[in-house]
Design brief:
The protein has 574 residues and is α/β, with parallel strands linked by helices. It is built from 21 helices and 10 strands. The chain folds into 2 domains: 2-310, ABC transporter type 1, transmembrane domain (ABC transporter transmembrane region fold, Up-down Bundle); 330-415 and 488-573, Rossmann fold, CATH 3.40.50.
Length: 574
């Protein structure tokens, strides 16, 4: 909740002005029953029509002022709620963008999506409602009680006797409501995850005819969310009936006592009518206060979830303990007895050591789950090692700022992402490169035919590049990696969708234009993609089971020789 206050603070001036308009409109509303009472008890008996018309005109003016003040205040409240939520959403998105991979794994992407959408919406609703009703409801409640006390103290005491029951009911319902709304948002995370997975995997779901199974999985998530919503709604729904029950008991008591007082000549008809009007105002004010508590319960639960992300400390900041001077030229990469585990139980890679000199090419090959992509993630410092060290130019990556590391790399992954924007924007990626540089990168990545077929760099891609074939998408992604002349080029199984002829031309372009000045790290399933690498690592179960050149591995590594024989007849290439 402290974050909401921090974001609302810059708008306190506007809020105070809005509260002033709201307060003025509320006072006008409170005057109306009092004027009605005066007309009935004091003016009408005199028979003076002029005074009656003047009093009626005054009531009309009060009504117009009340409406104008409330509308103005509500518009200002809407703007403050909008601007506050916009800043929260922007900062939350920025904070999510800088979360480490391990932190993203802990929060999960569906949960972060839910916090960025439904949770910020709940805060928007809470901030808006507190401004619209936060002044009006208490003013109507307190003002109504004060005016009725001045008019009829005895009847007001009957009303006040009901208030403790209402206060206790609101407190108990609200106290239980916040945890229930938090459970509801967690259930929303679960359903968001299922929807997200189905949207991303719709092709394979249809291909395997698993629509029914996925529909059942969605039904389970939907039922879980429905149960959470029902528990929260049933809890909060208790408030309105309880308020009505207590207040209507009070109203019956007021009418009963008022009738006896009028009959005894202790009160007047106009005052009783005004009192019932004020009682209705007070009833609506109490109901509004209840709505504020309901919405605040939901908003506080969402604010706590957003606060968890905003309060998460920056992970993987530069650590001076590992600092060392940087060298110049193409980077030297060194893995020094590196061990890492995603879950902290079983190492996913263990005791990995190698040195890659500037301008050399490293090839990594092995079966699925061997730890190839993990090596890339550690090199790019998406995760920190559990043991050992990774150095670039003699500097431990843990001592390097995130931006410095990012600028060294050009990376393309097998399941990389294309945005719904132009090819130019997808290749440039905010680096401000010239068209000449973009076209040159596309030429090296064998993407020139893609540009020619689709009208050049300004061709609009669909979401995830859905209007391109798999091979075309990979060539655009490769163009993005090659653009900007990176110091370290990382290709993680990024040519799997290319035919052999295109793959061969790509490898030739890499040797001609990126050999010597750029250090290359290539993860591949094809022997042909890493055939000419200066160093090849063969991975299996998180360990290096073979290292050397292609010719050396054919002689010394059975697994590599088996892969080579199955793909291209390894013996012919010794």
């Amino acid at each position: 909740m402290k974050h909401v206050i921090r974001y609302v603070r810059p708008f306190f001036g506007k809020m105070m002005l809005g509260f002033t308009f709201k307060f003025g409109g509320t006072i006008m509303d409170l005057f109306l029953p009092m004027l009605l009472s005066a007309i009935i008890d004091d003016i009408v008996p005199t028979g003076n029509r002029r005074n009656i018309y003047l009093a009626g005109l005054l009531m009309l003016v009060c009504s117009v002022l009340a409406i104008a003040g409330n509308i103005t205040a509500n518009r200002m409240a809407a703007r403050v709620a909008r601007d506050t939520t916009e800043k929260i959403r922007n900062d939350l998105f920025a904070r999510i963008s800088y979360l480490s991979a391990r932190q993203l794994d802990a929060f999960t992407v569906p949960s972060l999506e839910s916090r960025l959408t439904s949770d910020t919406y709940n805060i928007h609703q809470m901030v808006g409602m507190v401004q619209r009703l936060g002044v009006r409801a208490p003013c109507l409640l307190i003002g109504g009680v004060v005016i009725t006390f001045l008019m009829e103290p005895v009847l007001t005491l009957v009303l006040i006797a009901v208030m403790p029951f209402i206060a206790v009911s609101v407190y108990l319902v609200t106290k239980r409501g916040i945890p229930l709304f938090n459970d509801q948002q967690v259930a929303t995370d679960g359903m968001t995850r299922v929807v997200r997975e189905n949207a991303q995997g719709i092709r394979i779901i249809k291909a395997l005819g698993k629509e029914s199974a996925e529909r059942d999985r969605f039904d389970d998530a939907n039922r879980t969310l429905n149960r959470a919503e029902k528990r929260a709604a049933l809890n909060m729904a208790l408030s309105s009936p309880l308020m009505n029950l207590f207040l209507n008991f009070g109203l019956v008591a007021v009418i009963f006592v008022g009738a006896h007082r009028v009959n005894a000549g202790l009160s007047e008809t106009g005052k009783i009518i005004a009192f019932t009007s004020y009682f209705t105002i007070i009833l609506n004010a109490v109901m509004s206060v209840t709505r504020i508590f309901i919405m605040s319960s939901r908003g506080i639960a969402s604010a706590n979830r957003i606060g968890e992300v905003l309060d998460t400390p920056m992970d993987m900041e530069p650590d001076a303990a590992y600092d060392a001077p940087a060298a110049s030229g193409s980077p030297k990469i060194e893995f020094d007895h590196v061990t890492f585990s995603y879950n902290g139980v079983k190492p996913d890679v263990e005791d990995i050591s190698f040195t890659l000199m500037p301008g050399q090419t490293l090839g990594i090959i092995g079966p699925t789950g061997a730890g190839k992509t993990t090596i890339i993630a550690l090199l790019m410092r998406q995760y920190d090692v559990d043991a050992g060290a990774i150095r670039i130019d003699g500097r431990d990556v843990r001592s390097m700022p995130r931006d410095e590391i990012s600028k060294k790399f050009g990376a393309a992954f097998q399941n990389d992402f294309l945005f719904a924007d132009t090819i130019r924007t997808n290749i440039d990626f905010g680096r401000g490169l010239s068209d000449e540089e973009l076209l040159r990168a596309a030429e090296y990545a064998q993407a020139s035919p893609v540009l020619e077929e689709n009208g050049g760099l300004d061709f609009e891609l669909a979401i995830k590049g859905a209007n391109l074939s798999g091979g075309q998408k990979q060539r655009v992604i490769l163009s993005r990696a090659l653009a900007g002349d990176p110091e370290i080029l990382v290709l993680d199984d990024s040519s799997s969708a290319l035919d052999y002829a295109t793959d061969a031309r790509l490898r030739l372009a890499l040797r001609e234009h990126f050999s010597g000045k750029t250090t290359n790290v290539i993860v591949a399933q094809r022997i042909s993609s890493i055939l000419h690498s200066d160093l090849i690592l063969v991975m299996e179960d998180g360990h290096v089971t073979g290292r050397g050149t292609h010719a050396e591995l054919l002689r010394t590594c059975p697994l590599y020789r088996e892969i080579s024989d199955s793909q291209m007849g390894g013996a012919l290439l010794e």
